[in-house]
Amino acid sequence: MSVDPALRTAALASKAWPYEEARRVLKRFPQGKPGGAPVLFETGYGPSGLPHIGTFNEVLRTTMVRRALEEMADMPTRLVAFSDDMDGLRKVPDNVPNQAMLAEHLGKPLTRIPDPFGKYESFAHHNNAMLREFLDRFGFEYEFVSSTTMYEGGQFDEALKGVLRNYQGIMDIMLPTLRAERAATYSPVLPVSPKSGIVLQVPVTVVDAEAGLVSFEDEGETITQSILGGQAKLQWKVDWAMRWVALGVDYEMYGKDLTDSGIQSGKIAQVLGGRKPEGLIYEMFLDEKGEKISKSKGNGLSLEEWLSYGTEESLAFYAYREPKSAKQLHLGVIPRAVDEYFQFRGSYAGQEIEKKLGNPVHHIHNGPGGSNVPADVPPVTFGLLLNLAGVMGPHATAPQVWGYLGNYVPDATAATHPELANLINLALAYNRDHVAPTLQRRKAEGIEIEALKRLDAELAPLPADAPAEDIQNIVYEIGKTGGFENLRDWFKALYETLLGSSAGPRMGSFIALYGIANTRKLIAEALA
């Protein structure tokens, strides 16, 4: 893409993490990749369970590094999304149907197991399709590559022969890392049984490396079989290294839990005549209990769940922030992510170029020079919409919300504010499913009673269209002079008595949106 010289200069100096990562690729190829070949970025996906946000996160972050590199240098690039769908199914995931059927196929390659959802030709095809559908929806530019296709189509055959040629060298790397019991049966090559179709975890003997032949025991019988053309796959650390070499991968990031694996695979790549890619080692997403998210457990958020309650951009924003810090990933983080994304977007246009490159929205909307960053933001926050939906109850509708918005944003409609219309629908869904069941407004007590009476009295003479800032000044003054130890206690009392929550919005904005008359009714209920 054509890059403005000022942008390129700023990109080369930027400390934002995508540029720091891209700088490592530049150091690897200071004169560009030999022969003008594209720099190859790769992300890996294990389709043994339904895709979760951690999977999407890798593609998103890798794309951000890819775009940063393109802003820094005139190098062609490619991104491969690789599915390890030749893996044998080790256990039945908890969150899929027809588990008894899947149990009958344990050990077989994922592409040779029926789809428990009954929609695709295999379990892997189903999960691959879910991943691709989301990546396509988000507009990623990538090439999807199936491990099964590469193995069965012979594209890995030469690399597999290389594994047999260097069999002992690979064993010398792997055996010291294994427990004695595991080392006794370990093999870099996993033949597919011609009898059961299972990916076998058995020792093998190299018969003829150039022909791709090995021998192994299968149900008491010694079998000599080719490992080419999909008749075997590799142990995954060896598979990872072989793939780096066979495809020529230059950059791949992975989670902290794979740090040691990355070291072993890097050594194996060298034995195979290649080189370990550059890559960021990121911290893992955790669930609400602080436990690692697992596809098989299904204890994280699915892509669909986030998008049921938050925007695509908020998901990208959450993934961008601090990749080397562990973060919890659950429904409770969505509202803040939505609003923080819009805060950064609102400041982008007025920033100097250096600041823009450190703004998350520059990397989320990764068009040339940030040209895809929308210029405006919705007139109300997602948090404010949630509070409005909260007082309206679980059966509130979008037309009712638009009615209240007339107090705050004159003449606003879904046609004139489509992004706001989407936020309203998301807020209603989030409130209905996760907020309304927990809301419980309490009665005012102690000094709160007089403070609320004073607020009611000062709201009474105001016109219906009183500015939010004027209302906020009234609220603030009551908090300062109403006998509270600090303002936080006053605002907490307002949230708990009027909204039924321990936290809430800027009250001046809420009252302007909900309406003075309606707010006075809430006060009356709190004082009743």
TrEMBL record:
Its EC number is 6.1.1.6. It holds the Pfam family tRNA-synt_1f. A motif ('HIGH' region) lies at residues 47-55. It catalyses: tRNA(Lys) + L-lysine + ATP = L-lysyl-tRNA(Lys) + AMP + diphosphate. Coiled coil: none annotated. Keywords: Aminoacyl-tRNA synthetase, ATP-binding, Cytoplasm, Ligase, Nucleotide-binding, Protein biosynthesis. One of its GO terms (molecular function) is lysine-tRNA ligase activity. The keyword Acetylation does not apply. Its main location: cytoplasm. It is found in: Cytoplasm. NCBIfam families: lysS_arch, PRK00750.1-2. Belongs to the class-I aminoacyl-tRNA synthetase family. This is Lysine--tRNA ligase.
